[in-house]
Amino acid sequence: MTGTLSATSRRYVLWATLGSGALVGGALIFQALGYPPCKLCHWQRWPHYAALIVGALTLWSGRRWLLPVGLVLMLVTAGLGIYHTGVERKLWLGPTTCTSTPIAGLSSDELLAQIQGAPLIRCDEVAWSLFGLSMASYNALFSLVLAGLWGAAGRRDQGAV
For the chain, which domains are there? Predict the structure, then answer.
């Protein structure tokens, strides 16, 4: 996968890059509106930040070998979004640094220590939802669409020289 991108593939990369920018921008707007991010929310943002850089480099250089990097970044953040959604829905446990633990059997001193050590923003509580989907769920869905754009850019250029 060497060489330069076709015009159509460049458009796919542009839309994927703008999509990551929109997701990060939306997250920052929600944060400004009083929805502070939890630890997992921050983790989901990092691949988008990296995709902005990869997208800019791809558009600037036209190098096709960067396309799989963008694809993998979007699959990583989609996976993190699915994981976070599972934590929010109590399907599995999240990081102990941002979820609560059972309090049954704790002494009053242990309970007080747990309360004092609890994170301010919990990963296992939905801060906002629309149509039953949380921000983590939307990140996963939109990131899969963006992964499709990165993949389409690569497939479009498979036959290019």
Answer: 7-99+108-156 (1.20.1550)
